[in-house]
Amino acid sequence: SQTDKLDFLFQALVKTSRLETGVIQLDKKPGRLFDTVAQAMSGIVYAAEKKEIVVSVDCPEDLTVFHDSKWTSEALFNLLDNAVKYTPAGGKIAVSVVLWEMYVEIKVADTGKGISESNQAAIFRRFYREEEVHEQQGVGIGLYLAREIVTRQGGYIKVVSEPGKGSEFSIMLPTK
């Protein structure tokens, strides 16, 4: 409903504003990444089931990383929410966690519509929405907020995508 959309927009704006103005301080401490991923996943299970999207997760249960679990979960949820929105019914979303030497990578790969190279830098701008996606609900703040959250923890988000071939978004968090 329109009320739900407005509420979602309002909540996203409040979170972004609090993060930007320093009202919210990220609290990085050692935590199991598995729990953070599970928290984010819980927010999209119903929507994915409704569209018959198969979601797989590959995350070591014992991997502990310095991160703000609540906010990292919020950032990951935003990536997953987009994956569900832009993946057609019957598609697939794969979440994988890989430990590299300096970073841990949380990757969300989907079989969605993909993003043209010319739009890939713009998608992280506040309120940016691709022309082609206006039939999907959204306000263009999710990726901006996700990037803010990850950047403030010393990490970054990267995207690999091709129109018609889906997208891969990776949250890269420092291991130290």
From TrEMBL:
EC number: 2.7.13.3
Location of the protein in the cell: Membrane
This protein's record includes keyword Phosphoprotein: yes
UniProt GO BP: cellular response to phosphate starvation
Keywords: Kinase, Phosphoprotein, Transferase, Two-component regulatory system
GO CC term, one of those recorded: plasma membrane
Positions of transmembrane segments: none
Catalyses which reaction(s): ATP + protein L-histidine = ADP + protein N-phospho-L-histidine
GO molecular function, one term: phosphoprotein phosphatase activity
Primary subcellular site in the record, as a coarse category: membrane
InterPro entries per UniProt: BphY/WalK/GraS-like, HATPase_C_sf, HATPase_dom, His_kinase_dom, Sig_transdc_His_kin-like_C
Histidine kinase domain mapped to chain residues: 1-176
Highest taxon listed in the record's lineage: Bacteria
Enzyme class name: transferase
Name the UniProt record assigns to this protein: histidine kinase
SUPFAM superfamilies the record matches: ATPase domain of HSP90 chaperone/DNA topoisomerase II/histidine kinase
